[in-house]
Amino acid sequence: MKFLFRYFLVGVMMLFALDAGAQTTKWQYIHKVKKGETIFGIAKEYNVTIPELIEANPEMKEAGFELKKGNYVFVPFAKNDDQSKQSAQTSQPAQTTQKSQPTTTPSSVSASSLTTVKSNDGVVRVGVMLPLHNDDGDGRRMIEYYRGMLLALNQLKAEGIKTEVNAWNVPIDADIRTTLLKEGVNRLDLIFGPLYSNMVKPLADYCKANNIKMVIPYSITGNDVAENSNIFQVYQSPEELNNKAIGAFLERFPNHHPIFIDCNDVTSDKGVFTSNLRKQLDASKITYNLTNVKTPLADFRKAFSVNKPNVIVLNSARSPQLNAVFSKLDSLQQVSPGIAISMFGYTEWFMYQKYDLSQFYKYNVYIPTTFYYNAAADKTEALEKLYVSTYGEQMDPNGLPRHAIIGYDQTMFFVRGLNKYHAAFIGKADQSTWKPLQTRLDFVRVGNGGYKNRNFQLVHFLPNQTMEAITY
Fold first, then answer.
1. Cα–Cα distance list, 169 to 135, 142, 160, 237 (Å)
2. Of the four listed, 115, 208, 429, 459, which is most buried by Cβ atoms within 10 Å?
3. Cis peptide upstream of residue 106 (ω within 30 degrees of 0)
């Protein structure tokens, strides 16, 4: 396991050649160890000393270290080499800095403690401050996210957009203020991070002081976005999304007969949504019925209208409960085939799509969500193949949304926007020419503070076996 992060960095290095403004590489080569090779032999092959090779690969200093077939070895430039002979176009890796605690941890990092030098050379300088490690699920998810970012930056380079990227591993127990002291941080144009809520304020304050745009890519607590104009917050709270889902329901089904089905799920957290939706229906004087999935079929049938189309809402998002309702509806349609049924579901239902797709189509399912992952789309399929060919493994098949595609979409959106609009970029959808593969972004200002993503959509599974995304 101790080599996994190194393999990730190796993949990054082999993938990227950043633009001419980047500094030359730290290593002249990345050597994959073959059977029978030794440290002495590798050093001799590249004309470096054994101490130089060990210094570039610190794990070689560990007790019991063994060089094994398949390991990657960073080969440094020999100290008497003239690195300036390297072309300005030499492949440049993303610089991933491990957590390092100084002797004294500063209580804050201000603009006055650093000299901000912004370049006007047309390069978009990107920083990443996320947990990039293999120690837990957070780290593995963020590695996938970062890999998606790198694929996007590679595509942007092919389009002629100049970028530089620096990445720092910022795990859950890190003090992000130490990362902010790293060389070059104050010259960044854009930082993606952090993942953890307690790191938001120090990073946000630093970004505001140094005029750096900051993208918070995942869920957090707190409301720093309302006070800091440099923040772009992708996350929307459950309360916000519930309110949007209720509004979409009322707009989409004004002439339907709503039915709430109790699924007897004591672990469900959907009671807040169903309770608030019922309050809105009451306020609008819209009649609805309540029933239970275990109600005998004859009584269950009485909850449905034969004169209006019916729309069903469950008080659970779990798969067993959903399948129980599908079974009940199948029985209902056998005895009452003319009853029109739609279902209003939950984002979690995407996890069951590959198992229940035929039922989603059959029962005209709508899923409120902030993303739309369509594995059958040509561009999505192409990116997933590129990911496999680049990194030698698939994206996490259980991750919804796909974290690599989140990183890809967010990078495309923000870097394109900054490249075109510079300081005037405020994250509006019409400022971007990027058509997202999975996650649509459209930011709105929060008071006098920063910007929050307002994207919301209904993904509709139609009975004709097609799908549509209805954006709001």
1. 12, 10, 28, 26
2. 459
3. no
Strand 289-292, strand 257-262: pairing? parallel
pLDDT tens-digit series, residues 356-380: 999 999 999 999 999 998 888 899 9
Whether the predicted pLDDT of 386 surpasses 50: yes
At residue 106, the pLDDT reads 36
Rounded distance, CA 40 to CA 393, Å?
A: 32
Q: DSSP secondary structure string, 331-383?
A: HHHHH-TT--EEEE--GGGGGGHHHHHHHHHHTTEEEEES----TTSHHHHHH
Find, among 81, 73, 62, the residue nearest to 40 by Cα: 73
pTM of the full predicted structure?
A: 0.74
CB under 8 Å to 271, separation ≥6 — which residues?
A: 315
Residue 147 buriedness (CB in 10 A; 0-12 / 13-18 / 19+): buried
401 preceded by a cis bond (ω within 30 of 0): yes
Among residues 302, 300, 310, the alpha carbon closest in space to that of 259 is found at 310
pLDDT in tens, 68-78: 888 878 888 76
d(Cα 168, Cα 96) in Å, to the nearest integer? 5
Q: Higher model confidence: residue 174 or residue 87?
A: 174
For 206-249, give the secondary structure using H, E and C. HHHHCCCEEEECCCCCCCHHHCCCCEEECCCCHHHHHHHHHHHH
Tokens of 41: 């032999």
Percent of the chain with pLDDT over 90: 70
